[in-house]
Write a structure and sequence with these properties.
Helix content: over 70%
Order of helices and strands: HHEEHHHHHHH
Structural class: mainly alpha
Strand content: under 5%
Shape: globular
Oligomer: single chain
Distance between the termini: 69 Å
Number of strands: 2
Radius of gyration: 20 Å
Strand order of the largest sheet: 1-2
Largest sheet: 2 strands, antiparallel
């Protein structure tokens, strides 16, 4: 077994799964926080308007992962207004900490809004602009992140830039509008992050076990598995870039609104 290749494969798998999700999740959270602060006393009203779509997606993502990983949902609220603490929605759940599958589920339940948000955006792009979706998917899957990281990253960026050639279509604007509502409520709460962190060890251990088995079996199975993980991560990276650009544009708009309000 090539120990160096084993470690590199594991690190790449973690970087293209957990690394991407937490990095973009944090960046989008910072943008969203500044976006709402810029509306001052009107922030709550703006949050209600965007939350009509964004909050059910956020909480629905948590609930979906609870079901997948066998957690028991004890209480759920997809959207509410005028709550005493300002909470727009929540999902309360319980699980057996001795169950390895349910323990890993803590991670996915915590990061669900970011992960499912990206997948929903992918599905929306497929429905509205299938040609763009297929083109981007083919380019990203063909990219070799393990052998040519720089070239593969440029492929993702070129696919992303190709989106703007559809800006004159109504489908593109529907995609951006719905994406905006989702992006503005992808922010992970402290409880989300805390719950996700509790499942990281189980998640990483599961990958280590799988990598070890594949490395011992040989035949290039570890490389094939790592390539598949990187392709999935790159696919999500494309849509995380979309979310991040949407968040940055919305943030710029909020600063313009704040500047106008101060001059009035």
């Amino acid at each position: 077994m090539d120990f160096g290749n084993f470690i590199l494969s594991f690190l790449l798998q973690m970087a293209f799964t957990l690394g991407l999700i937490f990095l973009f999740g944090k960046a989008i959270a910072l943008c969203n926080g500044a976006f709402y602060r810029n509306f001052g006393t009107h922030a709550r009203a703006v949050c209600y308007v965007t939350g009509f779509i964004g909050t059910p997606v956020h909480e629905g993502a948590h609930a979906l992962m609870c079901l997948i990983f066998g957690h028991k949902i004890t209480e759920i609220k997809l959207f509410q207004i005028n709550s005493s603490d300002g909470t727009l929605g929540y999902v309360y759940h319980s699980y057996n900490p001795r169950n390895w599958w349910q323990k890993i589920g803590c991670l996915f339940i915590g990061i669900a809004p970011v992960l499912v948000g990206g997948l929903l955006l992918a599905g929306l792009l497929y429905l509205l602009l299938p040609d763009l979706f297929v083109s981007a998917a083919n380019d990203i899957v063909a990219a070799d992140f393990a052998g040519d990281f720089g070239g593969a990253l440029l492929t993702v960026l070129r696919s992303f830039a190709g989106m703007f050639s559809y800006i004159v279509t109504w489908q593109w604007w529907v995609f951006i509008l719905v994406g905006s509502f989702i992006a503005l409520h992808m922010t992970l709460s402290r409880e989300d992050v805390r719950g996700a962190l509790s499942g990281i060890v189980a998640y990483a251990t599961a990958f280590l076990v799988v990598d070890l088995v594949l490395a011992l079996v040989g035949g290039g199975l570890l490389s094939v598995f790592t390539g598949g993980v990187l392709a999935c991560g790159a696919f999500l990276l494309f849509f995380f870039c979309v979310f991040l650009v949407i968040s940055l544009v919305l943030l710029a708009i909020s600063y313009i609104v704040r500047a106008v309000r101060r001059r009035m």
